[in-house]
Amino acid sequence: MQTFKVPSSEVPGYSAIYRNSLFKDGTHGGEFAHITTAYELFQHHLAIAPKSEFLGTRQFNPADGSFGAYEWLTTTDAAEYVEDFGSGLDHVFAKYAPDAKGYGTQQPLGMYANNRYEWSLAEFSAIRSRRYTVGICDSVNVGSADYIINHAEISVVVCSIDKIPRMFDRMSITPSLRVVICMDRLDCSRPNPVMQAFCAESAAALRKRAVELGITLLDMDEVLEMGRATPTTACPPTPSDICTMCYTSGTTGVNKGVLLTHQGLIHGSRSCHLSLRLSDTTHLSLIPLAHCMDRYATYTFMYGGVRVGYANGDRALIADDIQALRPTVLVGFPLLLNGIYESMSKATIGAKGVTGALSRMAYRSKKKRLASTGNLSHGLWDRVLFNKVAAKLGGRLKTIISGAMNLNPEVINFFRAALSCNVVQGYGQTETGAAGTIQRLDDFTSGHIGVPNPGNDIRLRSKPDFGYLVTDSPCPRGELMIRSKSVFAEYLGEPEKTRDTMDGEWLATGDIVQINTTGTISFISRAKHHVKINNSCWVSPERLENIYVQHPLVQSLFVDGHDDYNKVVAIVVPDSAEFVPWARTVASSTAASLEELCANATVVQELTKLLRIYSASVDLSVDEQLGAIYIEPMPFRERNSGMYTSLLKLKRREASKFYAEQLKKLYTEVGGLFVASSL
């Protein structure tokens, strides 16, 4: 058993309490007990790796827009920067924002940029003086940035230069803003990708406009000089102080401001380090820093020493960043990892001819060896084939960590075989500082999100309306509850929502899971995403999406349901490489385009039949079969990026609105009055 079941801990409606089997007393033990804040963690990293490369960014050639090798700051360089910039921030707040509001006696520092080393340096500088950061994200719409600035009452923002014009344009609706600190040199003497659209004249125009608006505009070098000229004394935070405020991704409605303490983030990162024990790690920072997951990963790796290389900001060039950095660990989410899998698998196990046959033989051999011995390497097949595949991701990758959503077991198995690296899944929410559960490195199974992090207690709460009970046998099922020091302090300004989220000292996650016979935990779906069909049966569209997406003809899909109908329906995006040749055969047309095939009635009918057959093969109930489908030729994110959060999770309400006409036709096919489930 990978979890320890606390004796006699069951109460009516709730399961027993479960803990990590290696930490049965519910604590971390004494290791790293001296680290209680992010400031102390930074000092720890300085002590163990003072001259080591710490924060890296790629060289940029403005002449052709190309990127070169990574350039690095050592931990000592970063510490000197933090001390000088932190002193400068003290002067900025005292001189230009003396009345800055915040949480209690602390002041917020807004952070508004893509991932880059200045983001992290500014955050550690804020922490040095007991301030907390607030990540500002506008990947969905500009209005979300306005909302965050107003809701958090931010007076000072550190941002990239491309964000300044839009903030200035909307100053009338963000009255708290007083100071903007630009990460980029305002004399344009240090070129980088976001500076491409600016020149000395346009930067001077920004300064002029700032004066007209009554805003103080500085760049980071100017703040550094202020700090160097008149150093201030550091005012380190306490464990109970706020470290950062992160806004929820917004999949279920309005973003909430989640206040996370130093104690919480250190508890979570320390527990993850104790689970993974990674050292001398090289990490690619690509998940938006405005959320907590990437920072949680960096904090975790800092216990054992880390090099953090920042992605250049262009998602199309992520593979190039990976090649340049050669990471030892890759922290990602399923949409990113699925994209890597699709590219690699098509060139190997999905290839035709000798290459495909050899790859499939090698793949089967490595999977069998891994299952029987736990050995990720294979002397013959790695030398002949898989070392070349691993080189595509730099050749040094040892661990892949996936979060946010379920990762297809086939993707996990492929990475373990083709890259000779371990793949673990974890679970967390913004409300837990991204910490919750993590898969053990010696566990080579799939289909679950691991076990409780050391120091975390979990239990389940029955959800009888949905048919999930803690008394279910052999696997208890219900809503996941977490008790941990990593749980958030509160939602800013929303005490009722804070109370609704807590059940005593337990965080009610809103996620349905089951405890497996091995003690591992499997994610089923978000409780809020369940829908009732035929006025009687509850189904989980999210769970169905995770199942149907494993069909070889399907790339992604959106499942919708409503109690006025007895069937769920779906918008299906096909896997074009597999779908086109199959559909051309069905349509008896060797030249039909993807769009034509998606609109072909016979193709739609045959794919619907195949998916129903598939549903029976994976033991779905009749209620979980797709009643009708619409085939969408374009991936959801390309069709409308507003359907995704910045963490690339589907926003069901937005998807329902966007496909309202298609859903109306599908519900007409299954009978009944059309009402989109999320409207």
From TrEMBL:
It comes from the Eukaryota. Its EC number is 6.2.1.3. InterPro entries: AMP-dep_synth/lig_dom, ANL_N_sf. GO terms for cellular component: endoplasmic reticulum; membrane. Signal peptide: none annotated. Residues 69-492 form the AMP-dependent synthetase/ligase domain. SUPFAM superfamilies: Acetyl-CoA synthetase-like (SSF56801). Keywords: ATP-binding, Ligase, Nucleotide-binding. It is an enzyme of class 6 (ligase). Gene3D superfamilies: N-terminal domain of ligase-like (3.40.50.12780). The keyword Zinc does not apply. It holds the Pfam family AMP-binding. GO terms for molecular function: ATP binding; long-chain fatty acid-CoA ligase activity. The keyword Ligase applies. This is Medium-chain fatty acid-CoA ligase faa2. It comes from Coemansia aciculifera.
